[in-house]
Design goal:
alpha/beta, Protein-Tyrosine Phosphatase, Chain A, 6-stranded mixed β-sheet, globular
Length: 251
Amino acid sequence: MATICGKELSMPTTTHPTGRQEKRLEVDLYETINSMSDSYQLTEEGVFGPTNRSYWVVEGRFAAGAYPSKKGYTGSGPTPKRLELLVDAGIDVFINLTQDYPGGTDSHMSPYDPGVEGRAEVVRCPVPDEHLPACPLEGSEAREAARGAHFAGEGCPDCPNDRSRAETKEILDRIDSALEEGQNVYAHCWGGSGRTGTIVGCWIRRHGLAGADEVLDMLAKLRLGDRDGGMKPTPNTSAQAEFIVSWGEGE
């Protein structure tokens, strides 16, 4: 089963709460996050992820890493090994942060949805490669913007934007709801460092598992559990790093 979160998420139409009700909802969410945080412990150093291109954020519950499919996979034939290893490790919710569709920045990848049908849920939260959630760019336009930002030493002018924090919260809420329901999560992008690192870093900050001055170092330590990619920096861009550091506890 596949669902959508992020910018394509259709919110239910209900009566808008009053200011007092909104405040109560915020307090309830904060209390829920705090109670969940008490039960989470970040993975210790020396523990490797369930595949050679992944790492555990919370051992046995929340993993993150690279795209779990292989080029040319169509759903027929053997399931990609990485995908099988993740399912065998108990993963039953995949948070797909890529634009792995025609016209997206990750259109070169082969969707793995058929390989987990009936065994896991794929939640699509598309973010353009090298960008932040809610960036409106796609495909070649997003790639050119990222390339130009790298050369200029600046961030993408389209992100962060007014929707970036709201969309990131939607992704974090989806991860937390799955964990609270006893499901096990795998968050991924293409290489597992930029978009994935951004979401994992914000999740760590949300739960108060690292301070703003230590979250990037903690993220790098967790990434060492990625056997083949652990030495690569995470996240990829200064804008992504600044976004993580700015994230608030309980946000």
